[in-house]
Amino acid sequence: MQKSRTIMKMDAAKDNPQEPPQAVHPSQAPQLYCDITRSHPFTSGRYGLVAPAPIVAAFGARDIHRCSMPGKWDLQRAVDEKAGTLIQSDREVAFSGAPNQWETLLFQFGERMFLHADESRIVGYAPTLDEADRIIQDFNTKFAMPSVHTGGHFQLIRRENYSDIKCEQVKLQPETQLTEEQFALYYPAATQKWHRRFVEKLLERKNGLSILEGEPGTGKTTYLRNLMGILRKSHRFYFIPPYDLDIVANPEFVGFWSKELSTYPDNQFVVILEDADGALLSRGPDNRQEVTAILNLSDGMLADFLRMHVVCTINCRSIDIDPALMRPGRLTSHHIFGRLCANQAESLAKSLGKSLPQAHEYSLAEVFAEKLTKQDPRQPLGFACH
Question: Could you tell me the residue ranges of all domains in the chain?
Answer without folding.
Answer: 4-34, 43-143, 153-341
